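During the reporting period the student researcher (J.K.) took over the structure-prediction task from the postdoctoral fellow and processed the backlog of single-chain submissions. One of the processed entries is reproduced below for the supervisory committee.
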Amino acid sequence: MTPEQAPGAEEAPVLTEVRGHLGVITLNRPRAVNALTEPMVELMLDALARWRDDDTVAQVLVRGAGERGLCAGGDIVAIYRDMTAGDAGAIRQDGRRDTSASERFWAREYLLNAIIAEYPKPYVAFMDGLVLGGGIGISAHGSHRLVTERTRSGMPETTIGFAPDVGGTWLLSRPDGGAGLHAALTGAHLDAADALHLGLADHLVAAEDLDAIATALETEPADDVVARFAAEAVPASALADGRTWIDDAYGQDSPAAVLDRLDELGRTGHEEAAGTAATIREKSPTSVTVTFEGIRRARDLPRLEDALASEYRVGLRLLQGHDFPEGVRAQVIDKDRTPHWEPPTLAEVEPATVEACFAGLGEDELDLTAVDETATKDAS
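J.K. obtained the following structure tokens:
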């Protein structure tokens, strides 16, 4: 069956088709490494809703077009334009606040993340190539998460003055020790072994086998297919190898204390610790502090949906701040790689500023009732 596409559309940003008993979702913006936009999220939501109660569809596959990766994250250029427009958050005459395009995008994207996590059919994700930010959100919440030797995954938000979202605080708060916090604060790109170590993925497969896996999924159960193609041996994870110093450094009660401990470890011969301290110091101090707090809070949350609601609150506050647009400008717009953070140091980040990021939104809270309604339907 050919991919489903809107009438008259030359190239849809998401292609959907049913092959045998497999529903296939292909992100189709290869030139942008399949960066997510709101129309893409809506197309994914529509496909998952249609296939959910379709008895001819037994399982779902998500993959990316092109050779560069599944998804490089959200379309931050569009978000930058939204942030610099200057009208987000304005209060109308009726007393209600105008929402920005970014807020509306995140609300639908986070709903998609939650639906994927609760999807009643096997959801297979090809986490090949770049899988960053929003790409984690549409893959790492699935039931069968496959990485390859080409995988470079992670949550690089502190580099652009933002904080992990799409359930990233939930995912990175689950591993024991400090590896998740390390990945969150540094924004490091993770290879397949590190993704497996962190619990972001389930199995390593060869990139050259992905097409064969997709074909097999058309007629065979996902568990059987994955078991047949999964690699028996996985390369060593740098995060696992460095667990002693990572757990030591990140077992502190503040980002400043983490940096102090990394400096101490660096002076005693741990070169990786010294390099990590330098990396974190390049990030937005506000983002590092908010991310540290977000991971800490997520450890105590009972559900992914609670973490998404918290991330939404943080995102809306950072959307109105200085460092997020400045970070995107430096990394993506002007590409000078010299962001001017405000404040410029961790010591100058006010605790009240961080606390305000997590404060409730009242009537603007994230609405995930569609997930709850689906769960109720399944239970009935």
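The committee noted the following: The domain at 14-372 is CATH 3.90.226.10 (2-enoyl-CoA Hydratase; Chain A, domain 1).
J.K. will present the remaining backlog at the next meeting.
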